[in-house]
Each structure stands twice: as C-alpha cells, then as structure tokens.
Specification:
1 helix, 0% strand, mainly alpha
Length: 47
C-alpha cells in the first residue's frame, strides 16, 4: 500500500513539475517568436 501511494505522489509531483516547465517553455517560446517578429518588422521598415 505504501509503495503504491509513494509512486502515486511521485507521479503527481512529476506531473506538476512538467506542467510548470511546460508553461515556462511556452512563455519563452512566445517571447522568442514576438522578438523575432519585431526584428523582421524592423528589418522590413529599414529596407
């Protein structure tokens, strides 16, 4: 019983950590895309 509960809590912890990492990666990717879009727009404005 204790083993199954331990694995369950561990799995839940991994799921929470994975969710936080996913949100962080999503925010970084979103910021990177926005920055790239601004750079392309600035380059087009110069040209």
């Amino acid at each position: 019983m204790s083993v199954s509960w331990e694995s369950l809590s561990r799995r839940r912890g991994v799921r929470v950590t994975g969710g936080l990492v996913g949100v962080y990666v999503g925010l970084v990717a979103y910021w990177f895309v926005q920055d790239a879009a601004h750079r392309v727009a600035a380059r087009k404005a110069e040209a």
